[in-house]
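Table S2 (text version). Query chain:
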Amino acid sequence: MSASSRRSGHGEPLVLLHGVGLDHTLWDELTPLLEPHFEVLRYDLLGHGGAPGVDDSVAVPDFIAQLDAELDLAGWSRANVLGYSMGGLIAGAYAAARPQRVKRLALLSTVFRRSPDEVRAVLARLEAAATQDPAAAAQVSLQRWFTPAFQARRPERVASIGQRLLRNNRAHFLAAYRVFALGDPVLAQAAPDIACPVLVMTGEEDVGSTPRMTRELAAALPDAQARVAAGQRHMLPVEEPAVVASALHGFFLPQADESSIS
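Corresponding structure-token output:
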């Protein structure tokens, strides 16, 4: 494994795709809870962390090709896939394009069919990311992503996510962010072709990937269930890894004895 990816644990193959502006360390809290029952592969998306950079020509098919290459490198013809935020956009598009390679799919904090106001808001954030002081833009993101309680309880973890945002190459980040901000049609078009079972999950107080979006996405998929985590915002895998891990165990290992994974 390179510095831009990690593979650990034993069991069902599971790939984790992070969100825009982040990297594979997003999963540091969740991965230890999955390793006893999954072989977990997490890697940096194009334009993030140690992955190759991107420019304005980058598009969802490039991220699909990257996931193909990661699965091939792992020697996996088929795997479970979890996509978070922008990673959910990629994971959903991948499941539609490569149905033979995705066993089960989880879409966590994933945007779907933004309203006109929500479209204007994300485009305003994209513009701010391009023009604002990076530190100020990062603070705005952190305030939206984390609950006040977690910010007070774990300021060092919130700060580490903020530092990750500040370390991004700005041109690469903006190119990737543009894919995310303009990606609504991709998942809307892909949804009917996602044949595998899907878990769609978000936080009750997530203003970016709202409970409405989660329920509408689940309804648009042939075989899906929706779950909303009470009192949570966007950073579910960091703030409440045990809640996410429990949902994933129940979904990805439906035949497992629950007492063995508690």
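Notes on Table S2: Residues 256-262 have pLDDT under 50 and may be disordered. Residues 5-260 form a domain with the Rossmann fold fold (CATH 3.40.50.1820).
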